[in-house]
Specification:
Layout lengths: L1 E6 L5 E5 L4 H10 L7 E4 L5 H13 L2 E5 L4 E5 L7 E2 L1 H4 L9 H8 L1 E5 L12 H9 L3 E5 L2 E5 L7 E3 L1 E2 L2 E2 L1 H11 L5 E5 L5 H13 L2 E3 L5 E5 L8 E3 L4 H13 L3 E5 L7 H10 L2 E5 L2 E5 L9 E3 L11 H8 L4 E6 L9 H7 L4 E4 L2 E6 L7 E3 L3 H13 L3 E5 L2 H4 L5 H7 L3 E6 L2
Parallel strand pairs: 2-17, 3-16, 6-7, 10-13, 20-21, 24-25
Antiparallel strand pairs: 1-25, 1-26, 3-5, 4-5, 7-9, 8-9, 11-12, 13-15, 14-15, 17-19, 18-19, 21-23, 22-23
Helix pairs in contact: 1-2, 1-7, 4-6, 5-6, 6-7, 8-10, 8-12, 10-12
């Protein structure tokens, strides 16, 4: 099992390029099986989650070719003969749940194991089930599998508001099924995330009739067939935010390129308040954090366009280095705070009150052996290690590999002292 060894205390410099968005690519890859011909999907990072999704599609009978160097995938769904997504594969990641919609839309039936992924708190699938049942899907849970049959998908008005806001993957599943349903479907309280808009754009290119994706009310008029297309995935806003914060936490001046400014407003607004210099031009941003007199902040994570939960841990690492008291309230996954214990091992001073973290920042962080609990917690530990004194060893970095392509190589190119160690 690989580990990362990082010697902190070095400023970064240079340019880092952002990959395609993992959270957009995964449902798009799943949606490709709905077409009656092959699709080509570009700008797909060769992450372990992507490879898992392709393994699942291959197990169903689809032909999947992945040119990892060019980051291009070709999917031909013609050979699909199985409609069961098995536990051994699905358990590895949450996004495998988005196979429900495509399999129902194309084949009228499926059996998908309950999904796995990071341990960041309870993530129920009740909204998925509610939404699909509204489209005339017969759905039940048996032996750890979601079993569904749709002999006659029918459009309907579906409300997808949940306890912690809209659900991106539930919205995706309902939209994917509704594309082939008879009549019109209206999804109320739909998720607005850019990754969902990218999925809708992919489906529209295939021939779907979708209006107002990115708004809280999405209208889908069902169509009878979809064609394969050539499509390019949007940049990863979470990866972009993570590298921006890498520059900030190390008090560096770097350039982050191949991003979309409009996907990062919540983060850049907070960083501007803190006093970080950010200069955007076209698809890049110059990050100037050489001035160390930053201000603490009070942040609440919210669905897009609010502050993303997937940047909460990384932001917490930065605030641990800023003098004063910062507050971060987690509204999406209230239990997503396992990283606090590991950050405190590195001499951070963070306490937890229900779903709110209080960060007493400004004291130097120090290197320590730490354990990654999930994908974004892994990134937060890397950022902390970059600025900590001495050496930090981060264990269980397979989490990191699920969402960041060649992170240690990118950080090395910026001057970080980081190496991957294989302890097999």
């Amino acid at each position: 099992m690989d580990k990362l060894k990082i010697f902190g205390g070095k400023q970064l410099e240079g340019t880092v390029e952002i990959e395609g968005a993992k959270n957009a690519a995964l449902p798009i890859i799943a949606a490709a099986i709905m077409a009656d011909s092959s699709s080509v999907i570009r700008n797909v990072p060769p992450l372990s989650d992507v490879k898992t999704m392709l393994d699942i599609l291959s197990s169903l009978g689809a032909s999947c070719e992945f040119d990892e160097e060019k980051k291009v995938i070709k999917i031909d769904p013609a050979g699909i003969h199985s409609f069961t997504a098995p536990y051994d594969m699905v358990r590895k990641m949450r996004a495998s749940i988005c196979l429900l919609g495509p399999l129902l839309a194309r084949f009228g039936r499926c059996s998908v194991s309950f999904p796995g992924g990071c341990v960041i708190g309870q993530r129920p699938i009740d909204l998925h089930i509610k939404g699909l049942r509204a489209l005339n899907v017969d759905i039940c849970i048996k032996h750890g599998y979601i079993e569904a049959v749709a002999d006659n998908l029918k459009g309907n008005t579906v409300f997808l508001g949940g306890r912690f806001g809209s659900s991106v993957l539930a919205t995706a599943n309902v939209m994917l099924s509704a594309v082939k349903a008879k009549g019109t479907t209206i999804i109320e309280s739909a998720a607005c995330e850019p990754e969902l808009v990218d999925l809708a754009d992919f489906l529209i290119a295939m021939g779907a009739d979708i209006c107002n994706a990115g708004g809280h009310s999405i209208t889908i008029n069902g169509v009878t067939s979809l064609k394969g297309v050539d499509y390019t995935v949007i940049p990863d806003r979470i990866e972009a935010g993570t590298y921006i914060l890498a520059g900030v936490i190390t008090r560096s001046k770097i350039e982050v390129s191949k991003l979309k400014k409009e996907h990062l407003f919540a983060l850049t607004d907070v960083l501007s308040f803190c006093g970080v210099g950010l200069n955007f031009s076209k698809d890049k941003v110059d990050v100037d954090a050489l001035d160390t007199s930053f201000r603490p902040v009070d942040i609440t994570t919210l669905p897009f366009p609010g502050f993303p939960t997937d940047l909460q841990a990384q932001m917490m690492a930065f605030m641990a280095t800023v003098p004063g008291i910062s507050v971060i309230t987690e509204k999406i996954f209230p239990e997503r705070f396992i990283h606090i214990a590991e950050l405190n091992r590195m001499a951070a001073d963070i306490s937890l009150e229900n779903s709110t973290a209080i960060i007493k920042g400004g004291s130097p962080l120090s290197g320590a052996p730490v354990m990654a609990s999930d994908l974004r917690a892994s990134a937060a530990l890397v950022l902390s290690a970059l600025v900590a004194t001495g050496c930090t060893v981060i264990n269980r970095i397979y989490h990191l590999d699920r969402g960041y392509w060649a992170m240690e190589e990118k950080l090395k190119s910026l001057g970080a002292r980081i190496e991957r160690i294989n302890y097999e």
